[in-house]
Amino acid sequence: VTPRPGDVGAPGDDRPARLAVVRCPDWAVLAAGANPSQPVAVLHANRVLAASLAARTDGVVLGQRRRDAQRCCPSLVVLDRDLARDARAFEPVLHALQSLTPLLEVTGDGVCTFATRGPARYHGGDQALAARATALVRAALDTVAPGASAIVAAPGVGIADGRFAAGLAARAASRQGFGPVVVPPGGSAAFLAPLGVATLGLPDRPDLLALVDLLARLGLRTLAQVAALPAADVVARFGPAGRLAHRLARGLDDRSAASRLPPPDLVEQAEFEPPLVDAGPVAFTAKRLADHLHEALGGLGLACTQVVVRVETEHGERNERAWRHEAAFHAGAVAERVRWQLEGWARGPGAPTGRIVLLRLTPAEVVADTGRQLGFWGGHTQADDRALRSLARLAGLLGPDAVAVPEWRGGRDPGATVVTVPATTADLETRAVLPTPGSGPWPGRLPAPSPATVLTERTAVQVLDAAGQVVGVSGRGAVSDDPAWLVGPGGPRAVVAWAGPWPVEERWWDPPARRRRARFQLLTDTGSAVLAVIEAGSWWVEGVYD
Amino acid sequence: MEQAALRPAGRRGDVEALARAASLSRPVTLAREHLVPTSPALAPLLPEGALRRGSLVTVRGSAATSLALAVASGPSAAGSWVGVVGLPSLGLLAAAEAGVALERLLLVASPEPSSWSTVVATLLDGVDVVLAGSPRSLRPADARRLQARARDRGAVLVVVGAADTLEADVVLTATAVAWEGLGQGSGHLQARRVAVEATGRRASARPRRADLWLPDSAGGATVVEPEADIVVLRGAS
Fold this sequence. Notes:
B: alpha/beta
């Protein structure tokens, strides 16, 4: 049986496991091989994900847009996120920490976690273990990037009960810059109490961001205030997200011990005969194993949040890592991590001498499959990967703004409801599904069907009544006479049926931005229907129902 | 080179052996794997009830844009991506109503005429359906290369308007017959009855006709029931 970081004593014990978190801040910058004199930032979806110290001194902050970051720091070197590069470069750090504990869990970009129970006893207490880990990581960072301490903030080591508290302790250690932060056993709740609610959304919990915002607006500013609420009331008011936030604020793990599921006895493994030299065929086999595993877990109604990957060579060398993903792994992601692990191992300090004979995948932590992994557009598929690759090629070919994706804005006009934004500014991998048409409070919206053609430029027309006068709409929304003729670029057309006016008065409280207009649907004798708009006495065609 | 996989032995073993035997004895690809999921409304117009992968479809007529959206809606709802090239005035709200998943839509508004074929070729690599505006001055060699690319990738290229030098496999011509729901200063456009004719090459050579509600009152496409002369419209809102 593989040891798990989640191991706790007696069943029913709700105490979280004691964990150490090692956190290398702005890891993506370090992994990209920046040098100390250059300000560097790594961006994803047009937002700064990591920035070097030089860039931060110039005012670059995380979450900033590319343009703002470049305005702060004109000499900024902008790099794209590359998770494979980050994972490969992390191997020396993991190799160094392996002298403390056999099984390390890669939790995120430049973050790893391990259970302290055994190692702390061996090294003479948490304090000594944390000091030893700090020294090892600092030494390892210098092999990754010489002068690492001048490029990014110092790495932090935190030990506490529970994943959330340990992660925040590591952040605190990295911020203060000297020595680790060790929270005494049972002291997680007290450690968390004075911290702000915004920390709930920090460690890979984007699902809690909306709740964090709401809590802050309700006047709950610290975790102590959240923890003081009665649990039942929190669940009643905020649902599952509230329950999670409440547990985290009290220093507990995200799931209670009683509701934690034992991992099923499923192991997927492949033995290679003859042994393999290349990472390529192994990764290919990993994809097949991951598919099997995913299918078997799916049959049990489970999804995997932590998977242990073990690789052995013919010389008896082995490399074992746990990989964690809060939002459950899909098969492709597991195969991807096997590839990162193999590449990191092959290039890292403890590179294997023999060929690979064994690959084993073990699900170490599972959750009931609530469809969370479907957040990726109903399951991240190969089709998505292919589409994103061709998107990247098009952006390279035509420029970053040439390819657009739709974004829901909501509005009363067909052209304003869905707008397009450059694809490079949208986070296509985690983009939420657009609201269904018909939702949202937009009184005065035109009913479906909408015009299939929405003209990008106003086409001026004249709408005349039977006497040849321009049709007008009064301030009370009354039409002067029935429209009889639509005079457009193609000549006059008789109007055979019409409906309207549907008046819209927007921003009447703001004189410069105020707009008053009325929409009509006109059907001409050629059978074509248009959406015509009159504003300040002039008519134009907004859309064509073709 | 075959790696011996150690799988937990058990009752599943027999089932797996059967599945393996079945996979060895069946044809390499089944005919239906050559088809893309297509909106049921278009089934009467296509010889196999669905579009073939790698085919080139031209839509024209007075309801061409709505018809192109109806063609794209089937694959898009089934999880495919849709690329749009050179149709800057495509109504995205109408696309959503037609059943095109907006989160799987990539738009290249108006590429230079010289890069049209490059853009379409790149999109054909990555998405299953490409809606394209009419190409201008496409060289015959480029046209052949594009069609070969679409066949190779199993993608469907839908050209709205004249196909120029491209050779369409299926030509869908939509003629608007009548709009329903609009009165003299009352009601609103609710549904349009459209006569669609499909012609083309090879299997599609025999012309087929169908009457569709395009769009229907929800913005999608449905076949007009032959016996129902009276259409039930939604209450006036």
